Automatic annotation (TrEMBL):
Residues 148-162 have a biased composition (Basic and acidic residues). This is DnaD domain protein. NCBIfam families: phage_rep_org_N (TIGR01714). It comes from Streptococcus pneumoniae. Residues 6-125 form the Phage replisome organiser N-terminal domain. It comes from the Bacteria. Transmembrane segments: none annotated. Residues 146-173 are annotated as: Disordered. It holds the Pfam family Phage_rep_org_N.
Length: 173
């Protein structure tokens, strides 16, 4: 799946009771950093909350420790906490985020994908028409009425001016 550049984090995340419980544990900052790294990794690969490097390769604890640049024991401890608190599930060795919709606007992503599909289809159609020589733009043609009206107004004004001059010269003479 394609990479998404954002995840949802609510402003009250640090009021969440699971986060408060993590704050009471030893080394809470490292655990929370790992949590955010897991969320961003899941968003980056956009596999519906599964931590998968490819379609066939899932991340191991060792891989995560390397990627997150954290000690393996810290990563394992954090994963154990997240699993205990129901923040992740591990099924057949694959780490899954059960509430992924909470962290990712799944409906919004589908809307973006649909808009992108439509935009790409429109672009490809345009490119195909250009290649075939069927070039037509969406140009709106309007009549040049304004120019004709201006000419008529100018002519009428000139005629009035001539009439005024005639009246002025005949009355003064």
């Amino acid at each position: 799946m394609s990479e998404i550049k954002w995840i949802k984090i609510t402003t009250d995340i640090f009021d969440d009771e699971k986060i408060c419980l993590i704050d009471a544990l030893p080394d809470p900052d490292a655990i929370l950093v790992i949590w955010f790294k897991i969320l961003t990794l899941a968003g980056k690969h956009n596999s519906n909350g599964l931590l998968m490097m490819t379609d066939k390769v899932h991340y191991t604890d060792e891989m995560l420790a390397t990627i997150f640049r954290r000690p393996l024991n810290t990563v394992r401890m954090a994963i154990g906490v997240f699993e205990q608190f129901g923040m992740i599930e591990i099924i057949d060795g694959i780490i899954s985020l059960p509430n992924w919709e909470k962290h990712q606007n799944v409906d919004g992503m589908e809307k973006i994908k649909e808009q992108t599909r439509n935009r790409v289809a429109k672009y490809r159609k345009k490119q195909k028409n250009l290649a075939l020589g069927n070039v037509t733009g969406n140009v709106t043609v309007t009549d040049g009425n304004a120019l004709e009206e201006d000419k008529d107004k100018n002519k009428n004004r000139l005629d009035k001016d001539k009439n005024k001059k005639r009246i002025t010269t005949t009355s003064s003479g």
